[in-house]
């Protein structure tokens, strides 16, 4: 009986690990798509990783801003052309799943901008699985 219980716990844990691994890869794939979109100058496609909601939270040097459309407008204002946007590179520092449908990601971003000068910083992203799809629901970039 103890062996059967152990086997059940082991299989449940293995299944959970497999799902987390799949979820992590899905999130990393979204970040890869965002990087490509940014480097092509396509902010609308870059934003597809974000939750299209008025509750989306973006925290930057000017404070907390809410809303998908507000975030997109701010990106367009701050990065009006390819020279300003530069080439984006993300480095992932940590990916953690504190709950089944929640992911906390810490990373570093770098923009290579030959004409404007390179800039870089760190970011934290709170991801949530909504209707079976992963979205960034809060972004804190510095």
Brief summary:
It comes from Pseudarcicella hirudinis. This protein has 142 residues and is of the alpha+beta class. The protein contains 4 helices and 6 strands.
Which terms summarize this structure?
globular, 142 residues, Nuclear Transport Factor 2, Chain: A, six-stranded mixed β-sheet, 6 strands, alpha+beta, 40% helix
* Fraction of residues in helix: 40-55%
User: What about the largest sheet?
Assistant: 6 strands, mixed
Q: Tally the structural domains.
A: 1
SS element count, helices: 4
Strand content: 35-45%
- Helix-and-strand structural type: alpha+beta
- What is the fold named in CATH at topology level? Nuclear Transport Factor 2, Chain: A
**Compute the gyration radius: what is it?**
18 Å
User: How many β-strands, per DSSP?
Assistant: 6
Using the 3D structure, state the CATH architecture.
Roll
Helix-strand pattern? HHEEHHEEEE
Low-confidence stretches: 4-17
How far from one another are the termini? 54 Å
**CATH domain class:** Alpha Beta
In the sheet with the most strands, the strands line up as: 2-1-6-5-4-3
Outline, from the CA principal axes? globular
| Average pLDDT score | 90
Descriptive account of the structure:
This protein has 142 residues and is an alpha+beta fold. 40% of the residues lie in helices and 37% in strands. The protein is built from four helices and six strands. The chain has helices at 2-39, 43-46, 68-78, 82-85, and strands spanning 57-60, 63-66, 87-99, 102-112, 119-130, 133-141. Strands 2-1-6-5-4-3 form a six-stranded mixed sheet, with helices on one face. A hairpin with a 2-residue loop joins β3 and β4. The chain is globular, with a radius of gyration of 18 Å. It starts with a helix and ends with a strand. The relative contact order is 0.15.
